[in-house]
Amino acid sequence: MDWIGLAAGQVPVLRVNNMTATVAAQISLVTGLTIEGLSYSYKGLRVFADFSLHSERKIVVLRGPSGCGKTTLLKLLSGNLEPTSFASKPSTAGSCLVLQEDSLFPWLSGTENILHVTKIQLAEFENHPMYRLIAAFVSRKACQMSYGQRRMVELFRAILFRPKYLYLDEPFNFLDGAKAKSVVPFLQGEFMEDTTLVMSNHHHDDPSLLSAASVFEFDGEFPITSLRRTK
User: Fold this and answer.
1) How many angstroms separate the CA atoms of 204 and 136, rounded?
2) CB 35 within 8 A of CB 52
3) Model pTM?
4) Which residues of 110-148 are buried (b: 16+ CB within 10 A; e: fewer)?
5) Would you say the C-alpha torsion 66, 117, 131, 192 has a positive or negative sign?
6) Cis before residue 65, ω within 30 degrees of 0?
7) How far apart are CA 46 and CA 25, in angstroms?
8) Residue pLDDT tens, the chain, 231 long
9) Beta strand pairing call for 14-16 and 95-98
10) For residue 209, how many C-alpha atoms fall within 13 Å in the half-sphere facing its CB?
11) Domains of the chain by start residue, with CATH
12) Cα–Cα distances in Å, from 156 out to 162, 175, 201?
């Protein structure tokens, strides 16, 4: 398992688990999300206790206020944290987690950051329909980009990788409404046909793919045993 990407203070924030982009793209179609009997504690606090969740859909949105457990659940599912126990959860093989924190190497250009992780040829990713959204700034060093531009590069990189499970922590942070809406088509349909997408979101007005998503609400109470499904 490899950590890829560093934030300030050399903290790893993007993890791609044991799989090249080529292998990930060849994984058979996956559908939905199932978690059963998951428990996890942190510094004496029981965060999840015999927690279960099931969605038959390939897009799952986790909603709730900051600090309610959304990011912790994404880390548990992706293998960044180890649960105390569980009966069933998705395999971490071929999964990718993009956290809120900037995960680009600041001294590399956007293009170099993409090539470093995906190993995809430059000509191939330049032909991707989403490339037009980053073409104007992707050749700059990450440290010379705005937060929103870096976020767009991170999302493009994750979508290119085509993991079996893609976990996005507040993916629309730093993006205005127009930019967020421009990304939405690439988080569904043919661009994600081999991927189950699980994303956190504390806003109710973000373009959260609601037409195709299951939506689950955190209430901020611990320990968490289940979530209220609102869609």
Assistant:
1) 30
2) yes
3) 0.86
4) bbbbbbebbebeeeebeebebeebbeebbebebeebeeb
5) negative
6) no
7) 37
8) 333 333 333 333 455 565 444 434 443 344 689 999 999 999 999 999 999 999 999 999 999 988 999 999 999 999 999 999 999 999 998 899 999 888 899 999 999 999 988 888 898 889 999 999 999 999 999 999 999 999 999 999 999 988 999 999 999 989 988 999 899 999 988 888 889 999 998 765 555 556 788 999 999 999 999 999 988
9) antiparallel
10) 28
11) 2-20+59-79+92-217 (3.40.50.300)
12) 10, 14, 19
CA distance linking residue 221 with residue 97, whole number of Å: 25
Rounded to 10 deg, the angle between the 110-118 and 147-161 helix axes is 20
| DSSP result, 106-174 | TTSBHHHHHHHHH---HHHHHTSGGGGGTTTTTTSBGGGS-HHHHHHHHHHHHHHH--SEEEEESTTTT
Please give the single-letter amino acid code of residue 140: R
- Residue whose token pair is 């040829």: 121
Structure tokens at 97: 């987690």
Tokens 């893609």, residue located: 166
Report how far apart, in Å, the C-alpha atoms of 183 and of each of 76, 129, 208 are.
Answer: 26, 11, 10
* Distance from the first to the final alpha carbon of the chain: 34
Biggest alpha carbon–alpha carbon distance for the chain: 51
